Every structure is written in C-alpha cells, then in structure tokens.
Amino acid sequence: MSMNYLGTVLHISNSGKLIARSNTTPPSGAFIYNNDKNKVGKIANVFGPTKKPFIAINLFKSVDKNSFLSADDLYVSLNSQKRKRRGQHGKKKKKKN
Predict the structure, then answer these.
(1) Which of 15, 36, 76, 78 has the most CB atoms within 10 Å of its CB?
(2) pTM of the entire structure?
(3) DSSP string, 49-74
(4) pLDDT digits (tens, 9 = 90+) for 6-26
C-alpha cells in the first residue's frame, strides 16, 4: 500500500478530534495513518486556507488520543481516494416496448 505524507499533528480539539496541518488538500473521508503505518482515523473536515489547510480527523475508538505528540507525522493512503458513484447506480432501468 502506497501512502502520501499528509502533514503534522497540531493538537487534540475539545471535541476529541485530532487537528493537523497539511500542504495539500486531502479527500474527505480518507483514512489516516501514523508513523508506524497503523490506521488511526478518518478525515472529518478540511478547513482554513487552501494552500495550508487544517484537517480535523475522527480517531478510531481503539486509538489512544494521548499517544499523539505535536509535530508527529501523518499519512494518507492512495487507495482510500476512491471516487463516489452518483446517479442511477444500483437501480434497474425500465425497458421501453
């Protein structure tokens, strides 16, 4: 699995989300990994300036929030950037007679 560098940890918010700073805008809902390549959470929100956005990450319940230090590196998986299908997917079309 190939991963891209996402950014660095800033802090844990009052709502329990991990806040990070990045140089790129990642896809919403992508999975986030730590230095040890362990899956730690999922992107909840991207906000702030477009050149260096802030990223709010929902951590998984199994992850210890206190294990993150300021300036820890985070990574995003290239495989988690799948496109969402829109429209008539899964619906049967009626045949015209």
Answers:
(1) 76
(2) 0.77
(3) -SSS-EEEEEEPTTS-GGG--TT-EE
(4) 999 999 999 999 999 999 999
